[in-house]
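> call design_seq(struct)
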């Protein structure tokens, strides 16, 4: 049989680093990937069985492969990232952030203006940023305005025009916000010195400005110009106050990027902190939507490349929580302790809070969407034929065989439905037999639902392993419900999920929302069952002896317990004390019972 075009393409791929592109039959780009060895990586897609469904679908849809060879792994990362952003292939990670960010521009002109902008124009001007918040930009510009007197007009302040007297000073000059460069009241050298200082502040370096202001303040004081010295002192205080607020790490940690990742089965959140001169000058979290069960390592590599490009970072060192392959140009540090570890922990905390806020926003704005997402995820994770909108979980409780009970808790759309919770006292089983007890309560629960024509759940969860699951299945068989309701058992120790007629358990990702909901169901069933069991034991222990007294009914026992709290105190009470609570006749019966001698 002749080889297909695709097979020939794969065989002729090079053993070089680069980027590979998969196209479907309609020549649409459906996936972009990077590799140290293009041939080895591409061949792996076709040489092994893929457990994840979307990967199998991707492989089926590949009609042709193209590749681009590059010099280094770093080049491959950059190229992969640019192709994903440009073409947004169907099976690639989705970068959920395409808004424009504000920058601070130092305009390329004589007497440069400093202003905020969202448009980066390649005209030789300097751009600092982008900043993730306009509030940060306004704070920085407010600081600069308070420290340095810069022009805000957009005049062409060429030497010839100033000398010809074309411009007149404006209100800003009279307010003291500008020194009047337009009429030649300020030299270009003086103005440029301020721009150099501003450039350093925007980089996070306050040291030079602080030093310069201290020199100026001393000079004014020595010349008896105390008002001018006081103005400089106020500027110093503003700058020191801003620096104190922004410096939260070791000042020795400079020009470093910090990255961390928090992920679940659908999304990943990558936080970025940029450090300069001991200060965090930027924080940003990027949301990525998974497509092919990408690992945290793959996602972090992609996000680091994207974020460093987007924020124009030139840092030579990065801190990350685990090893990543980003080429040889970057120093990758995995902090273990001290200030470096603290800053990495801060980044992780930022990513976690971002994820929590996202979920809260979805719950508030569109609770149905949140529930729909979880239900769809549970259906896929648990291999169900329909979404488990109605789930019931059973748990047995008995201590040394006494007062055996069982609990059934109900979740609807992923949330507890407490009005539907039910407790069962075991009636047909003698002694501590969890298997027989499970068989009894499952039978009683669904027999009653069927008799009352109540809706049945889409999923039953049994707290226990194969034994309890088999017992529950017997009841479903008797009721003719086998195959009509999905049922699984969860073993306590390793969180194994057992299915009927399948000896191999399913293990869910520990970070999976599906597993968290199953654990919540199991824990709720355990709590509810234990609570009922304790109530039964307490009632039995406290009232058994009193119930043995002839002529003493339930209400008398309740009244006595409210007053005396324990059976022992009732037995030791004086006759008049008992009479005050339950009257002469019943008090005599209780007193005589405890004082027969």
């Amino acid at each position: 049989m002749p080889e297909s075009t695709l097979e020939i393409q794969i065989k002729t791929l090079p053993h070089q680093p680069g980027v590979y592109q998969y196209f479907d039959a309609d020549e649409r780009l459906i996936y972009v990937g990077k590799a140290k060895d293009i041939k080895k990586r591409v061949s792996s897609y076709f040489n092994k069985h893929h457990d994840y469904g979307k990967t199998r679908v991707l492989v089926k849809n590949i009609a042709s492969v193209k590749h681009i060879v590059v010099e280094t792994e770093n080049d491959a990362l950059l190229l992969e990232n640019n192709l994903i952003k440009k073409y947004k292939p169907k099976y690639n990670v989705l970068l959920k952030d395409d808004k424009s960010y504000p920058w601070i521009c130092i305009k390329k002109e004589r007497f440069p203006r400093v202003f905020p902008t969202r448009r980066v124009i390649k005209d030789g001007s300097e751009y600092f940023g982008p900043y993730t918040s306009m509030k940060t930009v306004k704070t920085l510009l407010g600081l600069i305005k308070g420290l340095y007197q810069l022009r805000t007009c957009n005049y062409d302040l060429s030497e010839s025009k100033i000398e010809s007297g074309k411009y007149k000073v404006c209100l800003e000059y009279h307010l003291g916000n500008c020194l009047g460069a337009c009429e030649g009241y300020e030299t270009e050298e003086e103005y440029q010195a301020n721009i150099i200082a501003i450039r350093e502040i925007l980089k996070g370096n306050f040291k030079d400005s602080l030093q310069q202001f201290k020199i100026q303040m001393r000079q004014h004081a020595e010349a008896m110009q105390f008002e001018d010295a006081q103005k400089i002192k106020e500027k110093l205080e503003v700058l020191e106050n801003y620096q104190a607020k922004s410096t939260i790490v070791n000042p020795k940690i400079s020009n470093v990027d910090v990255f961390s990742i928090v992920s679940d089965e659908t999304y990943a959140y990558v936080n970025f902190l940029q450090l300069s001169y001991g200060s965090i000058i930027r924080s940003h979290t990027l949301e990525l939507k998974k497509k092919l069960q990408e690992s945290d390592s793959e996602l972090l590599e992609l996000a680091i490349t994207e974020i460093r490009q987007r924020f124009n970072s030139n840092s030579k060192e990065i801190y990350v929580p685990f090893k990543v392959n980003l080429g040889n140009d970057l120093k990758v540090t995995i902090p273990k302790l001290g200030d470096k570890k603290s800053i990495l922990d801060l980044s992780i905390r930022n990513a976690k809070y971002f994820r929590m806020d996202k979920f809260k926003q979805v719950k508030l704005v569109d609770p149905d969407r949140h529930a729909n997402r979880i239900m769809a995820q549970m259906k896929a994770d648990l291999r169900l034929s329909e979404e488990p909108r109605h789930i019931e979980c059973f748990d047995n409780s008995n201590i040394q065989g006494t007062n055996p009970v069982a609990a059934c808790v109900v979740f609807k759309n992923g949330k507890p439905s407490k009005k539907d919770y039910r407790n069962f006292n075991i009636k047909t089983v003698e002694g501590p037999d969890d298997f027989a007890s499970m068989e009894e309560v499952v039978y009683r629960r669904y027999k009653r639902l069927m008799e009352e024509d109540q809706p049945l759940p889409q999923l039953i969860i049994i707290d226990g392993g194969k034994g309890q699951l088999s017992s529950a299945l017997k009841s479903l068989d008797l009721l003719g419900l086998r195959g009509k309701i999905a049922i699984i058992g969860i073993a306590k120790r390793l969180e194994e999920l057992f299915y009927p007629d399948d000896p191999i358990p399913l293990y869910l990702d520990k970070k999976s929302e599906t597993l968290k909901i199953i654990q919540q169901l199991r824990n709720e069933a355990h709590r509810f069952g234990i609570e009922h069991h304790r109530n039964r034991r307490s009632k039995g222990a406290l009232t058994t002896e009193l119930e043995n007294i002839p002529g003493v009914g339930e209400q008398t026992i309740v009244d006595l317990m409210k007053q005396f709290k324990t059976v022992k105190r009732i037995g030791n009470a004086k006759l008049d004390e008992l009479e005050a609570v339950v009257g002469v006749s019943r008090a005599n019966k209780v007193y005589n019972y405890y004082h027969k001698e």
